[in-house]
Amino acid sequence: MKTDTIAAIATAMSNSGIGIVRISGEEAFLIADRIFRPKKGEKKVSEMESHTVHYGYIMDGEETIDEVLLLVMRAPKTYTCEDVVEIDCHGGILVMRRLLDTVLKYGARPAEPGEFTKRAFLNGRIDLSQAESVIDVINAKNDLALKSSVSQLKGSVLEKIRDIRQTLLHELAFIESALDDPEHYSLDGYTGELEEKMDDILNRTQKLLDSADNGKMLKEGINTVIVGKPNAGKSSLLNILVGEDRAIVTEIAGTTRDILEEQIQIGSVGLNIIDTAGIRDTEDVVEKIGVSRSKEYMNKADLVIYVVDSSTQLDENDREIISSIQDKKAIVLLNKSDLEMKTTKEQLASVLEKPCLIISAKERRGIEELEQLIEEMFFSGKISFNDEVYITNARQKNALAEAVKSLQMVIGSIRDGMPEDFLTIDMMSAYDELGTIIGEVVGEDLVNEIFSKFCMGK
User: Fold this and answer.
1) Residue 386: enclosing H or E segment and its boundaries?
2) Mean residue pLDDT across the chain
3) C-alpha to C-alpha distances, 384 to 78, 155, 321, 379, 389, nearest whole angstrom
4) 422 to each of 11, 170, 410, how far by Cα in Å?
5) Cα(385)–Cα(396) distance, rounded to whole angstroms?
6) Alpha-carbon distance 26 to 5, whole Å?
7) pTM of the prediction?
8) Which of these ranges, 146-160, 306-320, 326-340, 398-412, has the smallest mean pLDDT?
9) Which residue from 210, 205, 201, 154 is spatially nearest to 390, judged by alpha carbons?
10) Is the peptide bond before 110 cis (omega within 30 degrees of 0)?
């Protein structure tokens, strides 16, 4: 493990009110001694008390670089569990670079991407799931994603995984003890008891794995496609949801020929929303390509919003869409309710059993009901992070899937009457897979790959 002293700019490289340069490592205080001059002749940085703030100047020899506030934090009660100095300077790009150059000149080296958080992990302050949640907090695109990431940062995933692994370890230890010392530890009738415990562990692990789909949507947003035949009002709906005129709206059917993508937030839920070309039979080559893409996006979507022109009768184009979304999570919107309705809710319900709302994009009626329905469909209207844990990381999901397979094999082997020493192979496999989630069983290459995705100052 590296113990040299690293430094980086911890704020965005743009002009702002304040910038922060972070230093961490064994020589953090000594380097600060060389470049920091207190305003009132205070003691040296290396003699200052922990978790204190000091006013002064950063100096390169006799040249003043900037007027700053300097924070002193002594190990182990720091982000990295090492001695840390943070310098709050003016937030200009040039001054931040000059200040960092000065820190590097007097003994630090440039931090690698994510190296501060990597050191926090290697020094045992956080586990790997908490480390990964740091970047999720930074990249959160909506309120629910932020709440989920903060929950993981506080150790919600660690607690669940550690509890499951502890149960597995206890049973592994008992089997090994019984095999080594049968006089004092009996395995008579044990497999029945073990099967019950493995069933419980499997259910708990499966519950975490099942949360991954919702977790992915929390983190990345719900992939939502607006479909309908031409001139049904799809582009008008997109413009209302986005809050600006992103799509061209005309009375001419087939105006939208390409795909329009927007990220929006409805309540506390993020949507990656796509407006597609109207679905109909056409001889226009360009429009035909747009229709083909519409069908492709519809098949991949988490949510389909099917916009129906209620001022017209359902036709073959509508029937094709209805057939395509029978097995999809979908909402039907009867648009143009400001006109005489020739397609009713009852008519739709007879051919498609999906939630249906009557709206008018022109008069902006029914939009709030749509937003509420989306939240209810995906998250029952709300998410509590006190007890629920949502897996938002693909690496963690894969590890859980492998652990579930191993646990299923354990249960299958018990029912097949396999010997206890055979059971421990798959039990240990599940234990190790779960260990990769929190970083207790993980290779250096994987750790380096994870932290390489972080920004430089984190």
Assistant:
1) none
2) 83
3) 30, 15, 36, 10, 9
4) 53, 17, 9
5) 18
6) 6
7) 0.68
8) 146-160
9) 210
10) no
